Amino acid sequence: MKFHLLVCSILLGLQLSNLNARPDHQCSDTLFLPFVTAQNEWIVDWKHPSPGWPSEIRRYTFSADSALKDGKYYHELIYSTNMSSGPWISDARFYREENGRTYRWMENSPEQLIYDFNFVVGDSLPGVDPNQAIRYVVQIDTETLLDGIPRKSVIFNSVCGPFRWVEGIGEMEDFLDSETFCSLWDGIPMSIRCFSTNGQLLYIRPGLSTCYASSTNNLTTRPVKAYPNPASDFLALELDQNEPLQHLKLYNALGALVLSTGNCENNRVVLPALTPGLYFGSARFSDGSEGWFRVMCIK
User: How far, in Å, CA of 69 to CA of 81, rounded?
Assistant: First the structure.
């Protein structure tokens, strides 16, 4: 009960900052962290579906003002390629949510349910057309991000493989792409790099050291061998040409930085006490090359 009251107060605080908040955003018996709010922000890799076009890093959020569409109030999805300000560009899609369900509205299209966190194991979500695979709920779990608030996680499977939703963020493998998942036209790939609420970073994709750096750069990327794996007290790294290691960063599965060190004598790094689990590493070598690796820590 105390947790429900705490989450309800958070929701009300977010909604009171929006002068156009509507009754369908009020707290109910079942409480969910909000998805459709101008307080949320996603940094995504956007790739054009046609080959040869340049990719972009886009900053997405929802408009603070609501718009009346077919008798219901929605918030417009907007984006900018500027990571600190506008101009904001319309994505021509409008969203509303009600008791854990998120709906999308587009011109000349009926309203569509894209998220429903009331799902339980065994429920299914059909596609928007006959070419899209039906997705089946196979697991309900809880995921805690950097704010420490537990969020409901819904894991699906289909003939196209597994994917998951996380409450308040949406689909983790892509951004608002559930409606075109596994169809003849797979939509525009938009992979989430970072997610924040009210300016607080809550998620960064494992393997990234920053939200904003371009995904295409001039660094030479090489495969890295990390051993022992699993590791406990130390980690040794090497490239195929044995360049000296200059710096190493280690991230946990949520993308939080847990180790950053230049103490890399003989390409060996002493590990601090770490929670057992999967970690992602970034290694910079003396020739300017960079490599990524995964390692299980058992200490």
Answer: 27
pLDDT, tens only, 226-238: 888 888 899 998 7
Task: Please name the amino acid found at residue 253.
Answer: A
| 283 neighbors 248 (Cβ within 8 angstroms) | yes
- Could you tell me the CATH number of the domain that includes residue 237? 2.60.40.1220
The Cα 103–Cα 111 span in angstroms is 6
pLDDT score of 290 more than 80: no
Give the residue-averaged pLDDT of 39-54: 76
Residue 36 shares a structural domain with residue 131: yes
Q: What is the pTM of this model?
A: 0.61
Instruction: Specify if 210 maps to a domain.
Output: no
Contacts 24+ apart (CB under 8 A), 173-177: 175/42, 175/44, 175/60, 176/77, 176/93, 176/104, 176/114
Based on the domain organization, do 253 and 116 belong to the same domain? Answer: no
